[in-house]
């Protein structure tokens, strides 16, 4: 999994629509990704007013979330196993992060008010190990932020129904809904259950939709996906969740 996310070339070899994935790194842009980052940071600030504002982002990729947090006055740190991503974060956003997988990363006694997992947990066969380590570096009263795909979404329902109704002849939607690199699928209920095993309760959450501009889709694919995601929003079955947990 670390090798897969080590470069755009590796990702694109698996899914061609990932060709623009790591080049998407403008904290000034008015897109869905940055909007979700800002909304999540605002919730964190409101839930713990007056407390410290330092954050560690696990698997920080190109550093866009950390750059967004820095602009709001947060002290930032993070790690990513890809040398290319770490170099991109420094070159494009002026952010220095540690080049290491979270399992191997050494905290050196540092503690944080927030640990964030953006699109990380669905890639892990052993999420409990990562959550335990996050708790070890969390300050008393600290919070864990999680963002990822929602398995109970209209996109999933639509893709599955279309697949079965056509006896598997139409596979495009289901290939977008279920990716080979996603080895776990969560809903709000199951992500609650996961964190409850570590004494963490959900404080708040909100739903969102995939930022289609982040990916390289054809015009027809974008139109179709926009319609499906739009229906998901109307039906309150959006395909992403962002949740905040606290002990």
List the helices and strands and how they pair.
Layout (H helix, E strand, L loop, with lengths): L7 H7 L17 H16 L6 E5 L5 H8 L3 E6 L2 H11 L4 E2 L12 E7 L8 H10 L1 E12 L4 H12 L6 H6 L10 H9 L4 E8 L10 H16 L5 E7 L1
Parallel strand pairs: 1-2, 1-4, 2-3, 4-5
Antiparallel strand pairs: 5-7, 6-7
Helix pairs in contact: 2-3
Total domain units: 1
- The CATH architecture can be named as 3-Layer(aba) Sandwich
Q: Topology as H/E string?
A: HHEHEHEEHEHHHEHE
CATH fold-level label: Rossmann fold
| Rg calculated over all Cα atoms | 18 Å
For the sheet with most strands, the description reads: 7 strands, mixed
Top-tier CATH class: Alpha Beta
Percentage of residues in strands: 15-25%
Largest beta sheet: what is the strand line-up? Answer: 3-2-1-4-5-7-6
- Kindly report the name of the CATH homologous superfamily: Vaccinia Virus protein VP39
Helix residue percentage: 25-40%
Choose one word for the global shape: globular
Number of helices: 9
Key descriptive features of the protein:
seven-stranded mixed beta sheet, 9 helices, globular, 19% strand, 247 residues, Rossmann fold, alpha/beta
Tell me about this structure.
The chain is globular, with a radius of gyration of 18 Å. The longest helix is centred in the N-terminal third of the chain and has 16 residues, at 32-47. Helices cover 38% and strands 19% of the residues. With 247 residues, it is an alpha/beta fold. It has a single domain (4-246), classed as Rossmann fold, CATH 3.40.50.150. It has a seven-stranded mixed beta sheet, sandwiched between helices. It has nine helices and seven strands. The chain has helices at residues 8-14, 32-47, 64-71, 83-93, 127-136, 154-165, 172-177, 188-196, 219-234; strands spanning 54-58, 75-80, 98-99, 112-118, 138-149, 201-208, 240-246.
């Amino acid at each position: 999994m670390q090798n897969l996310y080590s470069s755009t070339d590796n990702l694109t070899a698996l899914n061609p629509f990932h060709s623009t994935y790591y080049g998407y790194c403008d904290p000034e842009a008015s897109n869905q990704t940055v909007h979700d980052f800002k909304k999540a940071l605002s919730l964190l600030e409101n839930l713990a007013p007056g407390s410290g504002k330092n954050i560690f982002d696990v698997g920080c990729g190109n550093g866009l979330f950390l750059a967004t947090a820095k602009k709001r006055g947060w002290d930032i740190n993070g790690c990513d196993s890809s040398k290319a991503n770490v170099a991109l974060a420094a070159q494009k956003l002026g952010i220095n992060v540690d080049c290491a997988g979270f399992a191997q990363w050494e905290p050196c006694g540092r503690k944080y008010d927030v640990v964030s997992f953006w699109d990380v947990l669905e890639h892990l066969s052993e999420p409990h190990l990562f959550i335990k380590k996050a708790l070890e570096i969390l300050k008393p009263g600290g919070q864990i932020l999680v963002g990822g795909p929602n398995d109970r979404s209209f996109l999933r329902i639509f893709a599955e129904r279309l697949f079965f109704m056509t006896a598997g002849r139409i596979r495009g939607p289901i290939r977008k809904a279920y990716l080979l690199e996603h080895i776990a699928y969560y809903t709000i209920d199951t992500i609650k259950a996961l964190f409850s095993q570590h004494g963490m309760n959900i404080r708040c959450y909100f739903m969102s939709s995939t930022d289609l501009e982040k990916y390289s889709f054809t015009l027809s694919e974008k139109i179709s996906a926009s319609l499906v995601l739009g229906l998901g929003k109307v039906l309150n079955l959006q395909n992403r969740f962002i949740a905040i947990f606290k002990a």
